[in-house]
């Protein structure tokens, strides 16, 4: 039995929302395995440039940054097409960009609903529709959508986020079926709670929405759902991603890989 292939040398990966948090960690893992990286996301220009340079210096790969706004379809198209033009290929697409707004549904602004659906779900449609022709020409590709345990189960006060993540899983399955004979797979990774900047912000928002302390949010809302009582780590998510983009992951298609400490087993 062969070991898991981790050498991605010569491959090119686009990771949306990769200037911090989960996305930056996934970009680091792919670069460590030899893939050239296209970073995307918001943040301080100096910090983004420092991340880009560090990926190149530490891992000997090419790393570039594209500032596409996930609310703008034309910019998303340019993210994909400019990658294909520069590198001549696009092997791995990781749809990770995401935003959140925690509120009762009657208090959730319509604009927040629209933004969450656009960034968390609709942007995946746009990246995939432009990446697929590039991958078809190569006869191989890996699409990985970072969904969530909330793509399988709901929590109060997160109507837009839960709806979007359920949609991502449906999109994943449909794309997988359409591309099953093209050498292209499409899968989702569904993390539980990871202590990212987004989750850090949710702690305060959820505390206000529920009228409880931030400590109680962590203990009774977030980690209460995960039987391990531990936040999911970046390395654990990276392990799932590397499997899905490897040759050994070729027959895993349309799947949702849960990395959530047993949350969905309850």
TrEMBL record:
Q: Does the keyword Oxidoreductase apply?
A: yes
Among InterPro entries, the record links this protein to: 3-OHbutyrate_DH, NAD(P)-bd_dom_sf, Sc_DH/Rdtase_CS, SDR, SDR_fam
Q: What is its EC number?
A: 1.1.1.30
Q: Which UniProt keywords apply?
A: Oxidoreductase
- Report the Pfam families cross-referenced here: adh_short
SUPFAM superfamilies referenced in this protein's UniProt entry, alphabetically: NAD(P)-binding Rossmann-fold domains
Q: What biological process terms from GO does the record include? A: monocarboxylic acid metabolic process
GO MF term set:
3-hydroxybutyrate dehydrogenase activity
Per its UniProt record, what NCBIfam families does this chain match?
Answer: PHB_DH, PRK12429.1
Family, per entry:
Belongs to the short-chain dehydrogenases/reductases (SDR) family.
Q: What is this protein called?
A: 3-hydroxybutyrate dehydrogenase
Which species does this protein come from? Marinicauda algicola
